[in-house]
Design brief:
Length: 333
């Protein structure tokens, strides 16, 4: 205890006490009134720290602080005030008076109520490379399967009453149900809102359309802040941000996220967008050397484990073109 009192006493004199240490000092002072051993500790601390210090301040017989006018402009520290006080009175008696006097003289930080800092809500970003897939568990226990070359942004913890994420690319969401707390996925001007359901969003910035496919539950889809679709299981909506065209159709529920099962399904896609998607899936480059081919529309499907070359061979048959490979790059001619 003696070493602790010495430590606190020194910090008190140097005006470096924390609020908690300041209160601890005075708890010992109160104890010293009835405990000679603790009083002796303070006497010893006084002899070591203040015994030879000159004094210009004192407390008179009525308990008033005197002789501090010269220091007032400089906001003297508690230690300076105490040096003056202790030369005229017994140590503990003086400290008890100081307890009352310093209640208003203590520094601004000590007098001000503690302000609780708001915890920072960190924004997290998870990304996949071409041919890479990733599983994520969000703060609300929503499960996400992130497809190749995709990015998902989400907070470290969701705000009360709202769950919102930002997607670039493709992902399948199995949203944890929460009454009256919507889960919102933003993809440019398109937002998808649910309470608890399972669905897929394909929204690569370099592709023609954004597609939302529902496997389970209900989904509301907004475009430019206007509702364009309310989907249930087995329904799909496609939105073309450039032409603003919106189209709905029925799909098999197991096709809502067929890519998870290794199936690549393209219904009424331009050749250009199919190639862009294949480049992400296989992380290989393709160049179309024939004019007019990229904007042709086809419907087709592949198994991912068949590989890039097999998929491109199918596209070549559909477009009456040929496939060659040079320096690691596929060419459609």
């Amino acid at each position: 205890m003696e070493e602790r009192i010495k430590y606190l006493f020194r910090k008190f004199l140097d005006n470096t006490c924390t609020k908690e240490e300041f209160e601890e000092v005075f708890s010992y002072i109160r104890m010293a009134e009835k405990d000679p051993e603790i009083q002796a500790f303070f006497d010893k601390a006084y002899e070591i720290e203040l015994g030879e210090q000159p004094s210009t301040a004192f407390v008179d017989v009525e308990g008033h602080l005197k002789g501090l006018n010269e220091e007032a402009a400089g906001s003297p520290s508690p230690g300076k005030k105490l040096r003056g006080l202790m030369s005229r009175r017994p140590v503990v008696a003086t400290l008890i008076i100081v307890l009352a006097v310093l209640a208003w003289l203590w520094n601004d930080d000590m007098r001000k109520p503690a302000v609780k800092e708001k915890p920072v809500n960190v924004q997290l970003t998870k990304s996949t490379e071409p041919s890479e897939y990733q599983y994520l568990l969000l703060p609300d226990s929503t499960e996400v399967w992130l497809n190749a070359a995709s990015t998902l942004e989400f907070p470290e913890r969701f705000k009360a009453g709202r769950r919102e994420v930002v997607l670039k690319g493709e992902a399948f969401f199995d949203v944890k149900h929460a009454d009256r707390i919507p889960f919102i996925i933003s993809t440019g001007d398109v937002s998808t809102e649910v309470l608890g359901t399972a669905f897929n969003i394909k929204a690569y910035p370099d592709m023609e359309k954004i597609t939302v496919s529902v496997k389970r539950g209900k989904v509301k889809v907004n475009y430019a802040q206007n509702q364009v679709a309310f989907l249930t299981a087995g329904q799909q909506v496609s939105i073309n941000p450039r032409s603003k065209a919106v189209s709905e159709k029925q799909v098999k529920e197991n096709e809502a996220a067929a890519w998870q099962e290794g199936k690549l399904i393209y219904d009424d896609y331009m050749i250009k967008d199919i190639i862009l998607d294949l480049e992400k899936v296989y992380n290989q480059k393709v160049q179309v050397d024939v004019g007019g081919v990229e904007t042709l529309r086809v419907s087709t499907s592949f198994k991912r484990d068949q590989g890039m070359q097999k998929a491109l061979e199918v596209l070549c048959r559909l477009t009456d073109t040929e496939l060659e490979r040079e320096d690691g790059i596929y060419h459609i001619k």
